[in-house]
Write a structure and sequence with these properties.
This protein is of the alpha/beta class and 241 residues long. The chain is built from 12 helices and 5 strands. This is HAD family hydrolase.
Length: 241
C-alpha cells in the first residue's frame, strides 16, 4: 500500500527543506512540483529557466494527476509530493486528491512577497497562490471528510522535532528521526529549476533557526499583501500548534 502525502505550499517558504526532510526517510520517495511544467506552459510566465524546464518535465496535467494518485516510482511505502498551490490552475483535475493525505504550509504574505520580489523582480497575488491554497484546503477536506493539518513554516523552524512529530501524527505516519537532518548537496529528485532557486537549500543540513528577512519591502508590494492576507489569516486560524 502506498501512502501519498501532498505538501501544498506557496513560493519562498520552507517547502524544499521539507521535501529534503521527507526524502531523507528510508521509506519515502519524493516528487518535486509535478505541475510546474503545465503551469508554465499554460500561463506563459517567463520564469527563470523556462525553456529548459519545459523541455525537461511532463507537460500533460491529466497524466500528472494520474501519476500523483499512483504508487511511488520506486515502490517505497511513502510517496511525498511537493506542490505549489498556484500551479493548480483552473481546469486541472482535483479528484485525484481524494486518495492522498495533505499538509498545507503557510507563511506571512509580506515575507513571501518581499522574498519573491527580490528573486523574480516583481510579484503578483497570483504568484503567491494563497487564494488557490485556501481553495485546495477546502477541496481536500471535502473529499476526505478530514481536517488536514495547516502548518506555519516559522513554527517548524522554531521547533523542528516537535512540529514534525505533530505533522506526522496528523497524517497518520510514524515520525522518523531521519527527518531532522540530511546531507548537504544537490538531489536527482530536484526539479530542473533548482539552479535558479535551490542554492540555499543545497547548502543546508537541517531546518535552520528563523532569521530576520534580508529583503526590502517596497510600497508597491502593499496591494499584493492586502489581497493575500485574508486567505493567509483564514488558514492560520486553523494551524497546527
Amino acid at each position: 500500500m502506498t501512502i501519498r502525502i501532498c505538501l501544498w505550499s506557496g513560493p519562498r517558504n520552507i517547502s524544499t527543506a521539507t521535501m529534503r526532510s521527507w526524502e531523507n526517510r528510508p521509506d519515502c520517495e519524493v516528487w518535486d512540483e509535478p505541475f510546474y511544467g503545465p503551469y508554465l506552459l499554460q500561463t506563459g510566465l517567463d520564469h527563470p529557466g523556462r525553456d529548459h524546464i519545459l523541455q525537461s518535465v511532463p507537460l500533460d496535467a491529466l497524466t500528472i494527476a494520474s501519476e500523483c494518485a499512483g504508487d511511488a516510482p520506486g515502490g517505497s511505502p511513502l510517496f511525498f509530493q511537493k506542490h505549489m498551490a498556484q500551479h493548480m490552475l483552473p481546469g486541472f483535475r482535483r479528484d485525484w486528491m481524494a486518495v492522498c493525505r495533505h499538509i498545507f504550509l503557510i507563511r506571512d504574505p509580506a515575507e513571501v512577497a518581499a522574498s519573491f520580489n527580490a528573486a523574480a523582480g516583481g510579484v503578483t497575488a497570483d504568484d503567491l497562490g494563497m487564494a488557490v491554497q485556501r481553495e485546495l484546503y477546502d477541496v481536500a477536506c471535502a473529499l476526505s471528510g478530514y481536517a488536514w493539518p495547516v502548518v506555519e513554516g516559522i513554527d517548524v523552524l522554531r521547533d523542528p522535532e516537535g512540529m514534525l512529530r505533530r505533522i506526522c501524527a496528523a497524517v497518520d505516519v510514524p515520525f522518523d528521526e531521519h527527518m531532522l537532518s540530511w546531507p548537504a548537496g544537490k538531489r536527482d529528485s530536484d526539479g530542473p529549476w533548482a539552479p535558479w532557486w535551490y542554492g540555499r537549500v543545497e547548502t543546508s543540513t537541517g531546518f535552520e533557526p528563523p532569521r530576520t528577512s534580508p529583503h526590502d519591502f517596497p510600497d508597491s508590494l502593499e496591494p499584493v499583501v492586502a489581497e493575500c492576507r485574508p486567505h493567509f489569516e483564514a488558514m492560520r486560524d486553523m494551524k497546527l500548534t
